[in-house]
Amino acid sequence: MRIIAGEFRSRRIESVPGMDVRPTPDRLRESLFSILMPKIEGAHFVDAYAGCGSVGLEAISRGARRATFLEKSHTAIEVLRRNIASLKAHDRAVVLRGKAAQTLEGIEADIIFLDPPYTNPDEYAASLIHANASLVIAQHSSKLALADAYGTLTRFRIVKQGDNSLSFYS
């Protein structure tokens, strides 16, 4: 796995071993950040269900002021911390351990990216209801139909790439 563009372009990062974590594919990350390009500079970006941190680290690489990573797996947090250290991004990264849906309640951000396990669709509703940002993006299976609205958030765009989709809410 690698960082696609920006300050850390082409730098390799570790993946979390095993099948429990599904990293966001490079092509989907490229599409995501092409869409976010005008909004990412100086933003506070939250990578919920962070895994190895590929999306949040990409955000920092492309100019986000700060990234907050939410993850509950001890193994994933160890890999994430090593990835942050390898990029020397300590001053722009915060790692919080816990369930994303609950941890999101106390966080205000510019952009929140959610990527819950595809096997647990209830996590989408729980996280989207607690997300406090002007832009929230949920990565999900293309087979999963997310609602058009959660709390005050309304979906305004869907991007599909094979088995993966991104739903954009504001």
Explain this structure.
With 170 residues, this protein is of the alpha/beta class. The chain has a single domain (26-169), classed as Rossmann fold (3-Layer(aba) Sandwich). Helices cover 29% and strands 28% of the residues. The chain contains five helices and eight strands, in the order αβαβαβαβαββββ. An eight-stranded mixed sheet has the order 3-2-1-4-5-8-7-6. α3 (74-86) links the parallel β2 and β3 (93-97). 41% of the residues are buried.
Summarize the structure.
The protein has 170 residues and is an alpha/beta fold.
Order of helices and strands: HEHEHEHEHEEEE
Within CATH, the superfamily carries the name: Vaccinia Virus protein VP39
Oligomeric state of shown chains: single chain
Q: Based on the structure given, which CATH architecture is correct?
A: 3-Layer(aba) Sandwich
- The helix tally amounts to 5
Tell me, what's the shape?
Answer: globular
Q: Using DSSP, what is the number of strands?
A: 8
Helix share of residues? 25-40%
The average pLDDT value, as a whole number, equals: 94
Give the domain tally.
1
Q: Give me the side-by-side strand order of the main sheet.
A: 3-2-1-4-5-8-7-6
Q: Distance between the terminal alpha carbons, to the nearest Å?
A: 30 Å
